[in-house]
Amino acid sequence: MAARIQIPREARRGEVIEIRILIQHPMETGYRHDDVGHLIRRNVINVLSCRYNGVEVFRADLSSGISANPYVQFYTVAEASGDLEFSWIDDEGEQGSERQAIVVKG
Amino acid sequence: MKRRDFLAGAAGALAFPGAALAQVDPLDPLVRALTNGAQVRKGKVTLVLPQLADNGNSVPIRITVDSPMTPADHVKSIHLYSERNPVPNMANFYLGPRAGKAEINSRVRLAGSQRVTAVAKLSDGSFWYDAAPIVVTLSACLDES
Amino acid sequence: MRRLALAAVALAAGVVLAQERAIPPGELKSGSAFLGSDLRALQNDDFANPGMLWVERGEKLWSEPVGKKTLACASCHKDQSMRRIATSYPKIDKASGNLVNLEGRINLCRTGRMGAEPLRYESEELLALTAYVARQSLGAPIAARIDGAARAHFEAGRAAYHQRRGQMNLSCAHCHDAQWGKRLLSETISQGHPNAYPAYRMEWQTMGSLERRLRACLSGIRAEMLPYGSQEYLDLELFLAWRAQGLPIETPGVRR
Lengths: 106, 145, 256
Description:
Shape of chain C: globular
Mean pLDDT of chain B: 83
Strand content of chain B: 35-45%
Largest sheet of chain B: 6 strands, mixed
CATH superfamily of chain C: Cytochrome c-like domain
CATH class of chain C: Mainly Alpha
Number of domains of chain B: 1
Order of helices and strands of chain B: HHEEEEEEEEE
Order of helices and strands of chain C: HHHHEEHHHHEEEEHHE
Radius of gyration of chain C: 19 Å
Low-confidence stretches of chain C: 12-19
Structural class of chain C: mainly alpha
Helix content of chain B: 10-25%
CATH topology of chain C: Cytochrome Bc1 Complex, Chain D, domain 2
CATH architecture of chain B: Sandwich
Largest sheet of chain C: 3 strands, mixed
Largest interface: A-B, 29 and 32 residues
Mean pLDDT of chain C: 92
Oligomer: heterotrimer
Strand content of chain C: 5-15%
Low-confidence stretches of chain B: 4-24
Helix content of chain C: 40-55%
Number of domains of chain C: 1
Number of helices of chain C: 10
CATH superfamily of chain B: SoxY domain
CATH topology of chain B: Immunoglobulin-like
Distance between the termini of chain B: 47 Å
Shape of chain B: globular
Number of strands of chain C: 7
């Protein structure tokens, strides 16, 4: 699944950094019908998590109440250089992930 | 059927979400599942929504909780509820002291004009909330295309 | 007397030409001017604009080799910036003499030069590539030409724009020339310009082409929708480009 991540490339140790993620996913609600009137089955990203050097620092339970192509912005403390890894899974079991490196100085 | 039983039954039927009388807060069962009956106080949480949604399919939302976010005093989770969407518990966000700042921004679907509620659970076990009304003319989920 | 008559004809023609534009250049407004502030802010957010997911995909596809010749768009266009390319579409394809829009141009390259299958309208790949190419013209003014072989298409497009159709018996002009800026139910009628397409439309909850939008208009007035890629749509796209001449490209737009 395509996704865009925005985090600062560099930060000072202890700085609170902003993280933005945009994932391409229809977040199909399960309330829509197709051209011949059949209900389109619900399929949404139901869990999104962010691990910082392997430790989960953020998690979200999402539902059909989140817009298509979900956008989430949250914060974390820049503790050490390393990786921020984002992973998510939808109702059909499709998994997605993205990783971005961050350099923490000081 | 005795008259008393009939009236009790009728009152129960009217208490369902969406009923015009709305004697019972439709969110109560959901919030109760989270709080286990603990008091939910207004404050600390700020929920920001536009007064009028451009389109119910994508409404920007910001939830901020006033908290030092230290290991001793932080927000554990934020829970978002709709009083009108088909799925009332819209999202849950799990934070912790590593968050640094208790703020979430996202975009949500809203099925019609309503009040949206955000409940925060703090590390000391207390619950706080804020609610905001919004007018939605093009509803998500219901106005199909 | 003859010279006077000629002058009168020229003057009349000049007046007619000046009256051709229902919306003068100085009054042109992009569709984003008719959005609420939240959707306009979303469009202007280079990160969060959902259409950018397709632009990014298009950037990847641009360099992916495809087809029998295992060529990528970048293989031929390697040193060329695609800046301002989108501003001149639809245009006449020199080889075939046909009027071609950006989607058609991409498919002509694929079938004619890359030995690849054409991409369907509204397919993820075609939307991504079209959005990527159009994005390279961000801020550049639309400048489609209507001279030479394009003239006949322009005239056909103009006729189509003014043609009443559908159960509601309305033409494009009835809303977008005569009533733009006024309310229709809960929305404000825009001038109907193509400068932000492909666009992410909230009603679709996904990206869509200009033709998809035109089809939605036709559906809205209960008129019969023609198949994608129909000559009438292409001619109409040319007329719309002329009508929007000077408006900067905004792809990917965010629309209701």
